[in-house]
Amino acid sequence: LFIYYKSNFMFSLNYFDFFISWELCFVLTLSFMMKFPVYFLHLWLPKAHVEAPTTASMLLAGLLLKLGTAGFLRIMGSLNFIYNNFWVLISFIGMILAAVSCVFQSDAKSLAAYSSVTHMSFLLLSLSLLMLSGKVGGLMMMLAHGYTSTLMFYVIGEFYHISSSRMVYFMNSFMGSSLMFGIIFSLIFLSNSGVPPSLSFLSEFMIIVNSLVISKLFFFMIFVYFLVAFYYSLFLILSSLMGKMFINFNNWGSGITMSTVLMMFNVFWLSVFY
Q1: What top-level branch of life does the organism fall under (predicted)?
Q2: Distance separating alpha carbons of residues 158 and 253, to the nearest angstrom
Q3: What is the rounded CA–CA span in Å between residue 112 and residue 115?
Q4: Residues 29 and 60 sit within 8 Å (Cβ to Cβ)
Q5: Which of 47, 52, 189, 257 is most buried when burial is the number of CB atoms within 10 A of its CB?
Q6: Which structural domain, as residue segments, surrounds residue 87?
């Protein structure tokens, strides 16, 4: 998928680049919206993540959600001929409501699942703007979310296998138990909230700049989203690092993820896209 988009990026190679009605385009995109998933069609995702084993969650978040995006990219040519304000509105509503839903989650896996919904709504906003720079930002977001969410589910799964609990309230004392695990956990959730110099920050910055070109009012809605998103990420990091329990983490297992963490905070991707 990456090689395809890298080689054919400057061309509008779409299966659907002809004029179709708004209704037909809406029906065509609904299946991909379910796979994104956008808010209001997202209810299967938290349930699937909570029930699935760690490996399945990592594959679902890192790989399968991107198939909906790939399908949507295929029919983006048709969006040139219709008003796509509906998808922009849905993406803004989804970003804010899913971020607020994250704050109220007690299950860490469910929190990570709702976090995926917020990022996919952000991605939908980027693609709905119908700019080449929006397409580049969207592809970077796919890549960033693929790394970040996979690692989020990995560290939550590691904690679950050791403590037999995924409750946010029981996740504590990472700093006292394993400094390595605590640092990796912090880096992953900081990347999830879009802290520089992570790839998430670069992609989100590009999407914000693109949306500001369309309307200055977009900034306020994005500001609300970032406020809430940073809050729940920071809350989870702080509550996890502090505490007096002792959890016997497998440091070697968490050390394997360092290569992916480096890819997440790597400026190398900028040189690939430009």
Answers
A1: Eukaryota
A2: 9
A3: 5
A4: no
A5: 189
A6: 5-272
* Residue 92 Cα distances to 160, 216, 218, angstroms: 33, 14, 9
Please report how many Cα atoms fall inside a 13 Å half-sphere around the Cα of residue 234, on the Cβ side: 8
Q: 248 with 177: CB under 8 angstroms? A: yes
Distant-in-sequence, close-in-space partners of 50: CB < 8 Å, separation ≥ 6? 107, 109, 110, 113, 166
Count of structural domains, the chain: 1
What's the rounded Cα separation, in Å, for the pair 238 and 85?
Answer: 38
Residue type, 127: L
CA-based R_g, the chain, Å: 19
Task: Say what the pTM is.
Answer: 0.89
Compute the half-sphere exposure of residue 59: CA atoms within 13 Å on the CB side of its CA: 5
